[in-house]
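Task card 7
Instruction: Convert sequence to structure tokens.
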Amino acid sequence: MNGNEAAMREALSEARAARDAGEIPVGAVVARDGRILSAAHNERETLRDPTAHAEMTAIRRAAAALGTRRLSGCTLYVTLEPCAMCAGAALAAGVERIVFGAYDPKKGCAGSLYALPEDPQLGSVPCIGGVLEEECGAVLDGFFCEKRKSAGNA
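Output:
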């Protein structure tokens, strides 16, 4: 298993924790030099905070762990392609790269709709998508399938 897959497996563990808490199952980790600095999952419903995406929380925690706002040399791993807010936060934090699992054709801003982190006018943070894509997608698909079943039985 390569480093990208190992870190993504940690993000998947966070995604499952989000699912178990009734949150949209997205998980994220920030790592540097093969060491995970922070891990988080979506907590929008729990915290009643629209910005409590997995990436935002992982970035905040990594900055706190390092004692700086600059995440130089860090990689953000996330199970779902980041939205505009999260891609922008990763860019603002100065991460070295973004690695994600499942593509998000509706809201993804790391390559699907737009490649915000790779826009040369804003910076240049490479994005690598499709790491453990099937596994990441399956967690999301299962969650939404259960939600639709519950809504149909209500």
